[in-house]
């Protein structure tokens, strides 16, 4: 694995959609810089550096105010690169860590002081080696006050994960709507299970993120209109309209290990008004919900 992957657009377009003041990009990552922060020996992909300066320049260009930086799998359980980015943000970023389940209380508190507000459990075998569920449950019972768990899995294992998920004692944020197969109907059996699951669990949230990973129709042609990834729209729109106070949005920049195309982050922002069609829904999705979860002391 010597070739470093670049999966982000060097010059994203300026979006037509202008986010409301205080908008949060609630799912993004940083890579390195590797001279300071090594990649994990277990990393399944090795990217080029995509550090905080690039992330914050993108934030400003896209019209966002804050970031939630999720520890990327290529940095393993050493959260130093993510903590560095949070520290560089001047209070405008918080984070989600990935931890060894045997982590001490003191180390969890240090992550909390550094701006982390949750931990991520990743069930994608192409990204991480599996950690036993009982170990994950044990650490989820020891989290600092106010923290949540972010969970990443694909739709076909939702039922298998159900008992585990139901045992997690803190709010749960599901990445990318549980990665539905968008070639199946939005009211079909598979997505219905996900909607039912969210309906039954009031402490479960969803990120309506990653159309660039879920889409089969893909981005528009270069001379096309700014309505990209339209096959994902009905899925994300259904979740936003059914659970308006439990949804988050993010760019997923720098799009870890994405193959096939380099997403234009400006087009991703222009996806927002297609899935949150009113100013009220946009305010909840981009401002109120992420601030409630990540900056609760500011009282939204
Ligand atoms: C995402 C998606 C992916 C990767 C990671 O931590 C990561 O490496 O999150 C993926 O490859 O699907 O959420 O950014």
How would you explain this protein's 3D organization?
The protein has 300 residues and is an alpha/beta fold. The protein is 33% helix and 12% strand. It has helices at residues 52-62, 80-88, 105-113, 133-140, 158-167, 189-200, 211-214, 233-242, 265-275, 279-294; strands at 24-28, 66-70, 93-97, 116-122, 148-152, 172-174, 204-207, 247-248. It has an 8-stranded parallel sheet, with helices on both faces. α5 (158-167) links the parallel β5 and β6 (172-174). It is globular, with a radius of gyration of 18 Å. The relative contact order is 0.17. The mean pLDDT is 95. The structure holds (1E,3Z)-4-hydroxybuta-1,3-diene-1,2,4-tricarboxylic acid (0GY).
Secondary structure elements and pairings:
Layout: E1 24-28, H1 52-62, E2 66-70, H2 80-88, E3 93-97, H3 105-113, E4 116-122, H4 133-140, E5 148-152, H5 158-167, E6 172-174, H6 189-200, E7 204-207, H7 211-214, H8 233-242, E8 247-248, H9 265-275, H10 279-294
Parallel strand pairs: 1-2, 2-3, 3-4, 4-5, 5-6, 6-7, 7-8
Bound molecules: (1E,3Z)-4-hydroxybuta-1,3-diene-1,2,4-tricarboxylic acid.
(1E,3Z)-4-hydroxybuta-1,3-diene-1,2,4-tricarboxylic acid binds next to loops.
| Number of discrete helical segments | 10
Order of helices and strands: EHEHEHEHEHEHEHHEHH
State the strand order across the main sheet: 1-2-3-4-5-6-7-8
**Main sheet properties:** 8 strands, parallel
Distance between the termini: 45 Å
Distinct small molecules bound, one entry per kind:
(1E,3Z)-4-hydroxybuta-1,3-diene-1,2,4-tricarboxylic acid
Secondary-structure-based class equals alpha/beta
* CA gyration radius, whole angstroms: 18 Å
Low-confidence stretches: none
* Net shape: globular
- What fraction, in percent, of the residue positions are helical? 25-40%
């Amino acid at each position: 694995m010597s070739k470093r992957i670049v999966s982000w657009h060097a010059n994203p377009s300026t979006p037509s959609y202008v986010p409301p003041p205080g908008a949060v990009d609630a799912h993004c990552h940083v890579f390195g810089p590797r001279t300071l922060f090594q990649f994990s020996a277990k990393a399944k992909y090795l990217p080029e550096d995509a550090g905080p300066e690039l992330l914050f320049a993108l934030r400003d260009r896209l019209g966002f105010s804050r970031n939630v930086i999720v520890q990327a799998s290529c940095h393993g359980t050493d959260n130093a690169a993510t903590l560095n980015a949070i520290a560089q943000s001047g209070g405008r970023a918080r984070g989600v860590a990935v931890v060894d389940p045997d982590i001490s209380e003191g180390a969890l508190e240090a992550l909390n002081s550094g701006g982390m507000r949750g931990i991520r459990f990743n069930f994608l075998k192409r990204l991480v080696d599996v950690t036993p569920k009982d170990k994950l449950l044990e650490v989820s019972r020891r989290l600092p006050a106010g923290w949540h768990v972010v969970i990443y899995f694909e739709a076909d294992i939702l039922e298998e994960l159900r008992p585990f998920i139901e045992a997690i004692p803190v709010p749960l944020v599901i990445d990318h709507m549980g990665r539905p197969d968008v070639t199946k109907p939005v009211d079909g059996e598979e997505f219905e299970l996900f909607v039912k699951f969210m309906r039954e669990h009031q402490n479960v949230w969803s990120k309506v993120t990653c159309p660039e990973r879920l889409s089969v129709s893909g981005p528009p042609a270069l001379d096309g209109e700014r309505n990209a990834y339209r096959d994902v729209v009905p899925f994300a729109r259904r979740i936003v309209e059914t659970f308006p106070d439990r949804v988050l949005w993010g760019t997923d920049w720098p799009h870890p290990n994405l193959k096939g195309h380099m997403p234009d982050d400006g087009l991703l922002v222009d996806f927002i008004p297609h899935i949150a069609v009113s100013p009220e829904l946009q305010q909840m999705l981009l401002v109120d919900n992420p601030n409630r979860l990540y900056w609760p002391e500011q009282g939204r």
